[in-house]
């Protein structure tokens, strides 16, 4: 069985090569992560800068905002959305699985040819440009 090489990330998923609906690229992903983690860091100041509070707030931001506004505040600020692979709403459990694996870090830095981290693959989600 032969597999054709894809010419751009997301081609196998039926995503366009660029623009709205295309796979989010590294720069925007990292930028969104910094925005969300920075917000969690600042908010945690009310709790004494406890590292566990920062992580818990980061997780809460992801779990609350992904199903409600289709992405975290960082995602939305940078023009990204989190959807199921078929483009539909992520539901309530996918953000929990995605976030649990994201805060472990390793699954998020292992990507496939579509630039989807293991956290997205396990949750059946994809981060796309809005």
TrEMBL record:
Membrane topology of this protein: Multi-pass membrane protein
Keyword terms of this UniProt record: Cell membrane, Membrane, Transmembrane, Transmembrane helix
Protein's cellular compartments: Cell membrane
Residue ranges crossing the lipid bilayer per the database entry: 52-72, 92-111
Domain RDD: 24-124
Record-linked Pfam families: RDD
InterPro entries named in the record: Pra-immunoreactive, RDD, UCP021697
Origin superkingdom: Bacteria
Protein name: RDD family protein
Primary subcellular site in the record, as a coarse category: membrane
């Amino acid at each position: 069985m032969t597999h054709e090489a894809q010419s751009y990330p997301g081609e196998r998923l039926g995503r366009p090569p660029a623009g709205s609906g295309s796979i989010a690229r590294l720069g925007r992903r990292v930028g969104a992560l910094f925005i969300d983690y920075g917000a969690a860091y600042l908010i945690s100041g009310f709790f004494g800068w406890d590292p566990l509070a920062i992580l818990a707030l980061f997780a809460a931001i992801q779990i609350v905002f992904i199903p409600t506004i289709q992405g975290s505040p960082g995602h939305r600020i940078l023009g990204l959305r989190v959807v199921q692979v078929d483009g539909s709403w992520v539901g309530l459990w996918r953000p929990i699985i995605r976030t649990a694996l994201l805060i472990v870090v390793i699954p998020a830095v292992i990507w496939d040819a579509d630039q989807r981290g293991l956290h997205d693959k396990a949750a059946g989600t994809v981060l796309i440009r809005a």
